[in-house]
Design the sequence.
């Protein structure tokens, strides 16, 4: 997870902060700087990169899903994320200053489109992961074509089907 030194949750003016960690790689890398401003639920969309606090530490991750008063966040370089609530202080990333001097303005339409595409891929990964958790070791019914009998099978962790007597 991306860890940062502090978070300007209450700041209405843009503030620069250094990023550490690799959970948002390749988009954000070690020692990149982000320009953030205080945010609320109303100005955060799916695909936006936000800064939030969990267990006393500050993180920079992408918002993938928004459901009511909570959002699902995940680092671009991670397999799974977590649900967080909007009733905590948040900051939204407006611009990224890369180590090589490039500046990426996240308010440009091109960057917004890219962010939405990344979020949609992450959303598919999330839904696939949730589905996999639900059916991984649960039996399902299989109708055989020869006798039309129902047989119970178990799904092995690697996806190998094995008949159960």
Sequence:
């Amino acid at each position: 997870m991306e860890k940062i030194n502090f978070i300007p949750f209450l700041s209405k003016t843009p503030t620069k902060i250094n990023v550490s960690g690799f959970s948002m790689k390749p988009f954000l890398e070690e020692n990149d700087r982000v320009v953030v401003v205080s945010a609320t639920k109303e100005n955060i969309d799916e695909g936006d990169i936000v800064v939030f606090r969990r267990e006393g530490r500050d993180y920079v991750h992408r918002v993938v899903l928004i459901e009511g008063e909570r959002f699902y966040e995940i680092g671009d370089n991670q397999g799974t994320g977590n649900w967080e609530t909007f009733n905590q202080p948040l900051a939204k990333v407006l611009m990224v200053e890369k180590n090589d001097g490039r500046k990426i303005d996240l308010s440009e339409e091109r960057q917004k489109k890219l962010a939405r595409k990344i979020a949609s891929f992450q959303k598919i990964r999330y839904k696939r992961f949730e589905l996999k958790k639900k059916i991984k070791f649960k039996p399902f019914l299989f109708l055989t074509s020869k006798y039309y009998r129902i047989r119970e099978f178990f799904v092995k962790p690697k996806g190998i089907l094995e008949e159960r007597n």
In short: The domain at 3-134 is CATH 2.10.109.10 (Umud Fragment, subunit A). Residues 137-165 have pLDDT under 50 and may be disordered.
